[in-house]
């Protein structure tokens, strides 16, 4: 998963999963915490990759 399209897809997938769990469970449910952490990491990876692409010469 090294391009922005893949990252965007995975971020959206995790957001949908997370929204589903949040509507059914406590915010401290282990699955919600796990998905939140994965989502945070992917967002950081997306930001770093986008920054690299913006700063690299074309």
Automatic annotation (TrEMBL):
Molecular function in Gene Ontology: protein dimerization activity
Pfam families the UniProt entry points to: SpoOE-like
One of the protein's GO biological processes: regulation of sporulation
InterPro entries: HLH_DNA-bd_sf, Spo0E-like, Spo0E-like_sf
Protein name, per record: Spo0E like sporulation regulatory protein
Organism: Paenibacillus phyllosphaerae
Lineage, top ranks: Bacteria, Bacillati, Bacillota, Bacilli, Bacillales
């Amino acid at each position: 998963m090294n391009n922005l399209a893949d990252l965007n897809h995975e971020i959206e997938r995790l957001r949908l999963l997370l929204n589903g769990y949040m509507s059914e469970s406590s915010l401290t449910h282990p699955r919600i915490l796990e998905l939140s952490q994965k989502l945070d990491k992917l967002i950081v990876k997306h930001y770093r990759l986008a920054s690299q692409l913006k700063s690299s010469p074309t």
